[in-house]
Amino acid sequence: MKTAKVLDAKGLACPMPLVKTKMSIAQLEAGQILEIHTTDKGAKNDLTAWALSGGHELLNYEEENGVLKFWIKKG
């Protein structure tokens, strides 16, 4: 999966991973993919709901060594 941008939001508490995701995805063109890395456990629910409500597509989610990784395609 080719990502246009990687956002490192590790160590940030809610709501900052979501705020930074919104700012980062605004810089992308429709169809481009943003990869987000965070350690905030609440981000799974937050980013999933935000992507759906914003017309974006959550392509994948995985957890590796305490880091949550998301791939969101801009709608």
Automatic annotation (TrEMBL):
Secretion signal span: none
Coiled-coil features, chain-numbered ranges: none
One Pfam family cited in the UniProt record for this chain: TusA
InterPro entries (UniProt xref): TusA-like (IPR001455), TusA-like_sf (IPR036868)
CDD domains attached to this UniProt entry: SirA_YedF_YeeD
Domain named UPF0033: residues: 7-31
Protein family (similarity comment): Belongs to the sulfur carrier protein TusA family.
Protein name per Swiss-Prot or TrEMBL: Sulfurtransferase TusA family protein
Origin species: Bacillus spongiae
